[in-house]
């Protein structure tokens, strides 16, 4: 947690960039998109993990095969040779000379002080955690998952204690994850559909902060029907102004804000620091 703490000592909150920054010919969840995110003010890169049928780990969000690769098949049903043969489509839908990145290449590229959130990896933790051990990047890596016993048991038993933040959907999730004594719990990601959610309330947030745990809040807007934190999101922050979105997340004592618009959020953070 030292890297996180060092970064928080100099900033009111940290900026996590969802899938990297993609635009034009630069595609999400690729090394170029992570370079773009780091140049846009990111403190942490969020990336999605899949495992091929023969055990190779890649950075890709399953479900996006048609849009990004022109494929109707689930990428998780492919072996590494099949995945390596695929080419990305850019943001105009044109096939380009860019392939799905192997996770090992991404990790080696960003070895240093850039924080990395390895999302959607929880289904593979039986082999994924031992895979991570070889990189000796424990201080850089952050794991998340829904609160589920099968995931927590693996994490609890693994000898290398990677930083972990459970995705909290309801209050009972908090009690369940706190029952584990051998997990490196550094904070919690709160999902609050609306302002009536217990996870939106200052009392709930303050109880977590009093335990010296961090709060992760999402500003990303996946689509019209999904609210990750009571509609105080990137969309309203850009269309109406930061005071209608990001400002509320700061007032809710967010330590980490995930965004699709890091350059705008970075500019807002710099104004807060003056």
UniProtKB/TrEMBL annotation:
Q: What is the lineage of its organism?
A: Bacteria, Bacillati, Bacillota, Bacilli, Bacillales
Q: Which InterPro entries match?
A: DUF4996, GP_PDE_dom, PLC-like_Pdiesterase_TIM-brl
**Gene Ontology MF, one:** phosphoric diester hydrolase activity
**GO biological process: one example:** lipid metabolic process
Signal peptide (from-to): none
Where does this protein have coiled-coil stretches?
Answer: none
Record protein name field: Glycerophosphodiester phosphodiesterase family protein
Q: Where is the GP-PDE domain?
A: 13-274
Q: Which Pfam families match?
A: DUF4996 (PF16387), GDPD (PF03009)
